[in-house]
Specification:
- Two copies of one chain form a homodimer.
- The N and C termini of chain A lie far apart (51 Å).
- The longest helix of chain A has 26 residues, at 52-77.
- The first copy, chain A, has helices at 6-24, 31-37, 42-48, 52-77, 84-93, 98-117, 123-137, 145-162, 169-185, 189-193.
- The first copy, chain A, contains ten helices and no strands.
- At the A-B interface, helix 6, helix 7, helix 8 and helix 9 of A face helix 6, helix 7, helix 8 and helix 9 of B.
- The first copy, chain A, binds a DNA duplex (30 and 30 nucleotides) through residues 1, 3, 6, 9, 30-32, 40-48, 50-52.
DNA sequence: TGCAACCGACCGGCTGGACGGTTTATACTT
DNA sequence: AAGTATAAACCGTCCAGCCGGTCGGTTGCA
């Protein structure tokens, strides 16, 4: 048995926890179950995570950082110019990179479940999403376009993660096609001459949804 | 004390359960806590729901039916013609009908949490979303457009429900504006002449995300 | 009288966590 | 090289609290 670096054990425990959640749901994510999945005893597990809450927190943190990596990678791989982040998302998140996506799905799914259990741990996740929102707003596109595209991608993603609709490759391609056309047209004069029905005079409330 | 119709008690219990989940998270949704919130004893609660699972199932079912009502109402209120369902969504789901939205948020949030506990209860929710997906695909718009708009709206909705980003009225308006322009342009020749980067030759895999 | 609504005490199983002990690997000493 | 010290990693048992669910009883409307 080769000595692993300390982080590796923690990672393998987190993997185990995700497996348990994915297989049987959050209510089955007991310390014992996680320990068994990680091939160790509960005592050993508690040596690495001082409490169940700490384990859950680590789960969320890792998932947030995975997500952050995902969209920054997408950004870096996209050509420079307006809409770089959005193009990165479209290519990176709707691509066929099966394995990485599987991993992200695992972690996202477990993370959402964990957050349901303890909503106060949402901060790292919110930070990641808020950062993406800002990146996309400052992407050199007309207002709302980047946000709309990012939202659609996230919607698709969450549908998939939660199993709310069957997300097949056809749906992905149709959506991707529509979003790409939107992206392209948003950079032509046609976009600004478009005349969506007048937003009826907004009454002065500035209430926020949340 | 006026005699309430039997459904009313069940509804008030469901309301109580949602309140508990919203206030303290799923892990605090014990029968005792729900009963207390509903001003009755645990025994009384169990008289109306034979088990906790039955309570959760009712929570999910009600939330799914609320959601279904939301988008069918939107449809009915929209003018006939292509994109009716999508326009209904845009108007209905991104509108200022604060109260109804608050209610929907409550039920959605609690429902998602409950689903984390027992994923096998997802069916009614999936049915509602799948139906919407179909309605939107058969809405007389170019392929993908309706789906993309519905997804963006849902993404926004889920962001808000889960508290993943701060969804303020400005963001809503920007997104709504972009989606409405997309909707309009999708019905002009400019849409079909748009030439999104060729989807690279699809390899023959037809794997689905889920 | 009957029946539905409701109460609250109780039970048993589960689970998080504490804890004392054991193994294993590295560091230090001679 | 051999012995020894030290600490980290890990184990398995135990306990106490919690929580879902049961059940016998009570109330109050029809």
């Amino acid at each position: 048995m080769v000595r692993l670096d300390p982080g590796a054990v923690r990672r393998s425990i987190l993997d185990a926890a995700e497996s348990v959640v994915l297989r049987s749901g959050l209510s089955c994510m007991t310390l014992e179950a996680v320990a068994a999945e990680a091939n160790m005893s509960k005592g050993g597990l508690l040596h690495h995570f001082r409490s169940k809450d700490e384990l859950i927190e680590a789960l969320v943190t890792r998932s947030a950082s995975d997500w952050r990596n995902c969209y920054t990678e997408g950004y870096e791989q996209a050509d420079a110019g307006p809409g770089r982040q959005v193009r990165g998302l479209l290519h990176h998140c709707l691509s066929d990179a099966k394995d990485r996506k599987k991993e992200l799905q695992r972690s996202s799914c477990a993370c959402f479940s964990a957050l349901a259990q303890n909503p106060s741990l949402i901060d790292p996740m919110r930070d990641a999403y808020t950062e993406l929102q800002q990146r996309v707003e400052n992407d050199g596109l007309p207002p709302g376009v980047g946000a709309a595209i990012a939202l659609a991608i996230d919607g698709l993603w969450i549908y998939w993660v939660l199993g709310l609709v069957k997300v097949d490759q056809d749906l992905i391609e149709r959506v991707r096609g529509a979003l790409e056309k939107m992206l392209e047209l948003s950079q032509t004069p046609a976009w600004n001459s478009a005349n969506p029905q007048q937003p009826e005079a907004r009454e002065g409330n500035s209430h926020e949804m949340s």
